[in-house]
Design the sequence.
């Protein structure tokens, strides 16, 4: 069993089990991410209702994430991950009972709490299982484990609804429950976590945290360091969240399938490239700006695709999928680079807090992209919503221009 103070590597057995758990856990999330909004719209709630389903999911995800560092210290990684998997997977089949907005939002809230536990607990464990010199690659492999379900299940969810119907696809969203047998083999015992946490601030961990300015205080090593990664994550997650939520409502099924596949491929490639560059060339913090630029261009392409009414057929598929690929690539770069930068700023004593900040930025942005852009779309159309997302990414650009790598 791997303890808090014992790090293996990205080739270790514990790390591989974590990746398997992540694939199964995120499978239910990725499958239903575009399907639940489609289900709500099918029930007559419109664009705002569709966005609200994802927005509420992400709201409760973010709210729960604030408490996960405390839970990690009290009950340990295994309990946190196990409860998270159960709460994400178990409610999924119940969506089929009603497409009315109120019950869907209630189930989304429960799943959001579980997703908050799953995301922060898993990312924190990555930092514990890999040494600092491998955080780039470890984060990249975590991105692969997150990206593979999205690569396959984001597009297949929408296609599956056309072929199999909503009830079958919603039932398949219970896949996180399949990861529960792996949980006992993950992470340190709860007592080991409690013993290790107070001492983590001493020795090398204490010096690293001190050098980082305590992570929670303003200054050259505190919030000044974390502002760029957090703002970039918020802006790009907003764009991606709006794209995934509303593409099924603005394009034909074939174009949506290819576009969702493209954004997942782009995110996967971005994280792998960023992980290698960060570890090999010490570029932590330097990949935020190009990531934001790719995302901005991709969203502008989507604005054109919606507003200019791109021709149907292959031309429509090409425009929507090209923009989605760029958004995914940019967001993948930002995801990996921002997580490594936050780990470096926090130091080993506060990896759980760094994971929480990163996940909160990710999921808060996704929620804003769904709920906030849904409100914009209701009033000004989907072209206006995608245009607002592009504007937010543009505003975030100055925050990503770091002078020094992490």
Sequence:
């Amino acid at each position: 069993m791997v303890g808090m103070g014992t790090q293996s590597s990205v080739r270790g057995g514990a790390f591989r089990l974590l990746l398997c758990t992540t694939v199964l856990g995120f499978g239910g999330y990725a499958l239903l991410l575009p399907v639940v909004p489609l289900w709500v719209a099918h029930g007559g709630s419109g664009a705002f209702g569709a966005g609200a389903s994802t927005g509420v999911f992400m709201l409760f995800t973010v709210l729960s994430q604030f408490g996960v560092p405390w839970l990690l210290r009290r009950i340990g990684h295994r309990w946190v991950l196990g409860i998270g998997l159960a709460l994400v997977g178990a409610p999924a089949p119940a969506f089929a009972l009603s497409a009315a907005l109120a019950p869907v939002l209630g189930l989304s809230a429960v799943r959001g709490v579980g997703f908050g536990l799953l995301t922060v607990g898993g990312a924190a464990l990555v930092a514990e299982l890999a040494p600092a010199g491998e955080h780039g690659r470890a984060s990249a492999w975590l991105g692969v484990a997150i990206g593979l379900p999205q690569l396959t299940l984001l597009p297949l969810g929408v296609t599956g609804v056309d072929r199999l119907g909503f009830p079958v696809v919603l039932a398949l969203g219970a896949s996180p429950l399949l990861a529960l047998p792996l949980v006992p083999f993950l992470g340190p015992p709860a007592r080991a976590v409690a013993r290790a946490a107070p001492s983590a601030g001493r020795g090398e961990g204490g010096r690293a945290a001190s050098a980082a300015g305590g992570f929670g205080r303003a200054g050259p090593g505190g919030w000044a360091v974390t502002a760029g990664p957090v703002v970039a994550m918020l802006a790009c997650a907003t764009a991606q969240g709006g794209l995934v939520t509303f593409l099924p409502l603005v394009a034909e099924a074939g174009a949506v399938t290819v576009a969702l596949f493209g954004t997942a491929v782009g995110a996967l490639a971005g994280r792998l490239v960023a992980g290698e560059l960060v570890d090999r060339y010490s570029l932590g913090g330097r990949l935020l700006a190009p990531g934001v630029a790719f995302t901005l261009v991709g969203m502008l392409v989507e604005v054109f695709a919606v507003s200019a009414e791109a021709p149907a057929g292959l031309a429509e598929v090409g425009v929507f999928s090209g923009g989605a690929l760029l958004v995914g690539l940019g967001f993948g770069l930002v995801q990996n680079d921002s997580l490594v930068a936050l780990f470096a700023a926090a130091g080993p004593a506060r990896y759980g807090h760094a994971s929480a900040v990163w996940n909160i930025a990710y999921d808060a942005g996704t929620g804003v992209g769904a709920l906030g852009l849904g409100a914009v779309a209701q009033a000004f159309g989907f072209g206006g919503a995608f245009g607002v997302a592009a504007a937010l990414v543009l505003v975030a650009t100055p925050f990503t221009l770091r002078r020094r790598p992490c």
